[in-house]
Amino acid sequence: MGIIRFTPYGWRGRYDEDFTEDSVIRITTALGKVWAERTPGSSVLIGYDGRYSSESFALLAGKVLAESGLRAIVSTDICPLPALAWSAAHTEACAGALMVSASEESSEYGGLIVRGTDGGPISESFARRVERLVGTEAVYPESEISRADFVAPYLKDLCDFVDLDKISNAHLRLVVDPMYGAASGYLFRALEAIGCSVTQLHAGPQDDFGGLHPQPVEPWADECEQVVQCQKADVGLLLSGDGNRAAIVDERGRLVTPHNMIPVVLAHLVRDCGEKGRVVTTLASSMRTERLAHLLGLSTTAVPVGFSRIYGEILQKDVLMAAEEYGGICLPKHLYERDGLLVCLLVLEVLATAGCPLSQVVADITREIGPMDYIRRDIRLDAGEAQSLENVLPGLNPSQIAGRRPTSVNHADGLRLQFSDGSWCMLRPSRSGNVARVYAEAPNSSERDELLTALCELARDPQMWRNCVAQ
Known about the structure:
The protein has helices at residues 21-38, 54-67, 81-89, 124-133, 151-160, 164-169, 186-193, 222-230, 258-272, 287-295, 307-314, 340-354, 358-369, 383-392, 445-460, 462-468; strands at residues 11-14, 43-48, 71-75, 94-100, 109-115, 146-148, 173-177, 197-200, 235-239, 246-249, 255-256, 278-282, 300-303, 319-323, 329-330, 373-380, 408-410, 415-418, 424-429, 435-442. The protein has 16 helices and 20 strands. Helices cover 37% and strands 21% of the residues. The protein has 3 domains: 11-153, Alpha-D-Glucose-1,6-Bisphosphate, Chain A, domain 3, CATH 3.40.120; 161-369, Alpha-D-Glucose-1,6-Bisphosphate, subunit A, domain 3 (Alpha-D-Glucose-1,6-Bisphosphate, Chain A, domain 3); 373-468, 2-Layer Sandwich (TATA-Binding Protein), CATH 3.30.310.50.
């Protein structure tokens, strides 16, 4: 039996290596013990995506959890993670939820994602407790479970959050691409029901995803972009494998970056919907969101990368919107979890309200907050290099980078340098392997690339580390 590392982000493995019935039993046995210790006899909800045997694994996990004296309820069909999280938050005496999904990983992977009683992520201490209790033997369960539809009540609440009549009356032509993920069919049917002209691509479940990776980024968004162009659609809507992240394609067939999509949603919430509150982003997020928030009179907070860090801010109850650098958006008023389906509906409400093409909406906001060019590059390191870099980063304090002097140096999440014109660059070790992530943003691509190149050189050169320590 292999060693299992369980984190607040869950656990995943390849079907041909780690993700087996035995592993799922071992983990859910430990999870059941923790939940039963904290809230004996409570309900736990189990959802799943359309991957290979996900439903079978979900039923197995439910039986294991029932062995701990919990009331295990398994979804009747594939279920987006936001729907499962929403159901946990709205189910009385619910200990939490378990999703059988590897999120945006390719079809060769399976995974387990855990959510707490409020639909938000579990804590580091909870994950460590589960990991410590994972045994070496798998005991096959015989307990009974029940099943329920988690999606229908969630969709009703979701549709109440936006003005469906306004969206319907806009007569938009739409392309929806759930990327064979857990959201397959749901957004399509909801929009078709209100009279929208909708084309759906890559609807699951399909075991191998047709070779597609369920990530709403290029090149996996290429077909959606092409169909939007060919059909002269107003917008394309893509959803990640578990449904918690969305991406949008404008009427020209161009993918809108998360750094432009997030301000579009924020401006709509404040100016069109009259919402107020604090905006939370990560230290690796574009400055565009922070700039717009300040123009709108909103306070902002930037936290280290990871939704669990964002969740800590959400619990303070004053957050209007929280957004990750990858485009995950959480509206705590709706749910303490990112929700790609809600983002799609809000974008449609933006278009219905604006009465102009999406590209024009993005261009107007860009003019207002000023141009910024964002990039991220991953550097692969061997294990020794990765550990050395992680050890030295807290002590690095470069007096200049790419010939520019930083106005501030932040070590909260690796090394982040801020400059007087709003430009910044950042170097941080990845939590998922021997990789260093390098970010840069500047008013133009030339300055951006200078910062990126200089920080990549710093990541690779121990001699430069010595020159940057304690300056």
